[in-house]
Design brief:
With about 375 residues, the protein is an alpha/beta fold. Helix content is about 50%, strand content about 15%.
Length: about 375
């Protein structure tokens, strides 16, 4: 049992929507273990719905790409300095950095150096790129909560304490999603094909991908006139998505959803999707997908030099082969995106085989994540 007298206070930073999703699920486990827990820092709407107190808007940190980060460097650095000073004044029982390693690891190292216990939730992808980051992780985190089963052994080789806690989404997304019910809920035709378009959860992603996705949708609509399109949009990016949609000329052919990415993935026959955590969500929904990405050219060249594996998309990384196509940077043309997405709709045998592959993956990732996280965090607190 926890021996501390009085309510605990944990600080947490989740710097982007995917982190907000993971952190919201983590908070369920923490609240079950410490009902009076106070949570403060930087978070998004799912965290706020669970009583989290955010000191800055999460959108301030949701920037991806080397050049894009440089443009916002002064503001992001200022937030980190102010956050560090406030945390050292308030002295929480624990700091939890949720993903966002470029922001969180330096902050964790500073706090840990002053004596605040630190946990990093989601092992940075040292197995995919940035292998040099391992030294920073060792300095930053008292413990790492890993969402993939091979990660703790990899970290242990470098003297980093870690636990496999499963992937929170694997316990939330049903093993057999109800496509028919999702279509009814979204008001979609049960008998016409549905493609979910997910051009990203960051403004920079929407900037580089949304117009390509909508142009691809226009081509798919021409090939299959009865095709339906849904686009889940987080509120902070709605204006950006609407602007790209209006410029596409097919605004009346696409249904925008307020969030509801899980409903969109449950309802669709296939998804055209930006590389990131959402691709794993699509895999857990057992949906065929085409993974796309496009970014500033300089950022792309830097990332290519750091890449350690031939795959970028999480479903391919976890399966160890190209089970779904990846169209990146210059290859992500509207024509190629449309062709690859339509190919799934014309290959039911391939879709069935992929569904079985993703079911096996889902089973591997399914654990009681909130409880396992709380167990690991309690051990850190007890020292």
């Amino acid at each position: 049992m926890d021996s501390k007298v009085g309510p605990r206070q944990f600080a947490m930073v989740a710097g982007e929507p995917s982190g907000d999703l993971l952190a919201g699920l983590l908070l369920d486990g923490l609240r079950a273990r410490w009902p009076a827990l106070k949570m403060v820092g930087i978070g998004g709407p799912r965290m706020l719905a669970r009583g989290f107190e955010t000191w800055w808007p999460q959108e301030k940190l949701a920037v991806r790409g080397y050049v894009e980060v440089l443009r916002h460097y002064a503001e992001i650095s200022g937030i980190r300095r102010q956050l560090k000073a406030r945390l050292l004044r308030e002295w929480p029982d624990l700091f939890i950095g949720v993903d966002a390693p470029d922001f969180n690891l330096d902050l964790e190292a500073s706090l840990r150096g002053r004596g605040i216990k630190t946990v990093h939730f989601v092992c940075p992808s040292i197995w995919a790129w940035r292998a040099d980051r391992i030294e920073k992780i060792r300095a930053a985190a008292d413990h790492v909560l890993c969402i993939f089963p091979f990660e703790p052994a990899l970290l242990a080789e470098h003297g980093v304490s870690a636990s496999y806690v499963g992937h929170p989404l694997a316990d939330v997304i049903p093993m057999k999603p109800d496509r028919a019910a999702a279509r009814v809920a979204l008001g979609l035709d049960a008998n016409a094909p549905v493609v979910a378009l997910l051009p990203g959860s960051r403004r920079s992603e929407v900037r580089y991908l949304a117009s390509r996705f909508f142009a691809a949708a226009a081509l798919m609509k021409r090939a299959k006139p009865n095709m339906q399109f849904v686009v889940p949009v987080i509120p902070s990016l709605r204006a950006d998505v609407v602007a790209a949609l209006q410029a596409s000329g097919i605004a009346d052919q696409i249904t925008l959803l307020e969030g509801q990415s899980h409903a969109a993935l449950a309802a669709c026959d296939a998804t055209l999707i930006a590389s990131g955590t959402a691709t794993l969500e699509a895999a857990l929904f057992k949906r065929p997908m085409v993974i796309a990405y496009n970014m500033n050219g300089i950022s792309w060249r830097i990332m290519q030099k750091k890449q350690l594996q031939p795959w970028v998309g999480l479903p391919n990384v976890l399966c160890g082969e190209f089970v779904v196509p990846e169209l990146l940077q210059d290859a992500a043309t509207p024509e190629a995106l449309a062709e690859a997405t339509l190919a799934w709709l014309q290959a039911p045998d391939k879709v069935r085989a992929l569904e079985q592959r993703f079911t096996t993956l889902h089973q591997q990732l399914q654990r009681d994540t909130p409880r396992l996280c709380a167990d690991a965090i309690q051990k850190v607190l007890e020292g």
